[in-house]
Hints:
Blueprint: H1 6-16, E1 19-20, H2 22-28, E2 34-38, H3 42-48, E3 55-56, H4 62-66, E4 82-86, H5 91-102, E5 108-111, H6 114-120, H7 130-139
Parallel strand pairs: 1-5, 2-3, 2-4, 4-5
Amino acid sequence: xxxxxxxxxxxxxxxxxxxxxxxxxxxxxxxxxxxxxxxxxxxxxxxxxxxxxxxxxxxxxxxxxxxxxxxxxxxxxxxxxxxxxxxxxxxxxxxxxxxxxxxxxxxxxxxxxxxxxxxxxxxxxxxxxxxxxxxxxxxx
Length: 140
């Protein structure tokens, strides 16, 4: 038996992180000091699209891409910007935000309600950029 279920993990993570509403996040879209980070699986991006301009960082690789000592490090995370993490319903987003807070990263928010709420609010969406798809196929 597990000692903590996903509901408890998410509730604990919500207490240690900061969310941002879709309305407030929309105001930051296009802001050069803000990076939207899509944590969803590539199949979700292909099926449902993503927030235009978002950086795709699969949830399973996030810690490795953030850590400068990792061979998988991505410089986008060293830019000293505000990062808005999102997934479909904000479960992965809030857990990822808590993990990055544990790693000592500042300026991390999670999109309340996730991409589902973003779309429901009529906020802009678009297809997964072709260059991202081509780069990911090269790595496979």
